[in-house]
Specification:
Elements lengths: L2 H4 L5 H5 L7 E5 L3 H7 L5 E4 L3 H4 L11 H14 L4 E5 L9 H15 L3 E3 L7 H9 L4 E6 L5 H4 L9 H17 L3 E5 L3 H10 L4 E4 L7 E4 L1 H4 L17 H18 L13 H6 L1
Parallel strand pairs: 1-2, 1-8, 2-3, 3-4, 4-5, 5-6, 6-7, 7-8
Helix pairs in contact: 3-5, 5-6, 6-7, 7-9, 9-10
């Protein structure tokens, strides 16, 4: 039996029960390889619609489709044995009605085999969250900065500096909690607001550009390891610079090919020892 097969899968109830007890470690994953590399050390892998920008070079997440999310979700599930895998519902797949959201979320759950879905929005999405949860679909909420609503929000910026805005975000978090979400992401808020929400709601908060007081943290893995390196947000800590390493490896390879240093006979099949010595 492999080590992977002995790992116990982290469940949605276990994530929910971490509130105030043990930090929830979360990262994004879009591919099977990334899932394999991260799975042992994280509690939750989010197949985020950020893949539109990170993998496909889109300007925002709005062009991501349900089929794309399902395909990448399936890839992550092939690589994950321990982490709780949650899949983002993309823009336009859940906003029309709770019924349509259920049809699309049920398709994700069936075809991916994930533990739940994530959708953005607070008060306005509470009915939909409740509808899904009551029908057996675990939901991870998302309040604060909502990337799918970036056009109406006036761009990417930290939220909650003004009292009216802060009160609305608190109400959003409370609505998500009351609707039955097992946890909620808090994105792009001022630190005191994220701290207050964490102290107010009974479900775990997962922070990104929020507060160390949140019950868990999440980053885009490609930001974490320096692969998505065109822009480094303030809230990102780089734990590696893989992008530069890949660039340097590509240059070294190109130089060797152009100079005739690669491949050598050592990298070829059917070559006798004498030929290698002569070559």
């Amino acid at each position: 039996m492999s080590a992977h097969s002995q790992w116990k899968k982290v469940t949605v109830p276990e994530i929910r029960d971490r509130k105030g007890r043990e930090p929830v470690v979360c990262l994004t994953a879009y591919t099977s390889l990334t899932a394999v590399l991260l799975d042992e050390n994280v509690d939750l892998l989010l197949v985020g619609d950020s893949l539109g920008m990170v993998l496909y070079g889109m300007d925002s997440t709005l062009g991501v489709t349900l089929d794309m999310m399902i395909a990448h979700g399936q890839a992550v599930m092939r690589g994950s044995r321990k982490a709780c895998v949650i899949v983002d519902m993309p823009f336009g797949s859940y906003q029309v009605s709770p019924q349509e959201a259920y049809v699309n979320a049920a398709r994700v759950m069936k075809e991916v085999g994930c533990a739940g879905v994530k959708l953005e929005g607070g008060v306005e999405m509470a009915e939909t969250i409740e509808f899904l949860v009551q029908r057996g679909i675990p939901v991870l909420g998302h309040v604060g900065l909502l990337p799918q609503s970036v056009n109406t929000a006036g761009g990417f910026r930290s939220l909650g500096r003004e009292d009216k805005e802060a009160i609305q975000i608190i109400e959003d978090a409370k609505a998500v909690e009351a609707a039955g979400a097992f946890a909620t992401v808090i994105e792009g808020t001022v630190e005191p607001l994220a701290r207050e929400i964490t102290e107010t709601v009974s479900i775990p908060t997962i922070g990104i550009a929020a507060s160390p007081a949140c019950d868990g943290q999440i980053l885009v893995t490609e930001d974490l390891v320096g692969l998505f390196s065109g822009f480094k947000p303030k809230f990102v800590k780089r734990y590696a610079e893989l992008g530069e390493a890949i660039r340097e490896a590509g240059k070294a390879y190109a130089d060797d090919v152009r100079a005739g240093r690669f491949p050598t006979l050592d990298q070829c099949f059917g070559v006798k020892t004498e030929q290698k010595k002569a070559g």
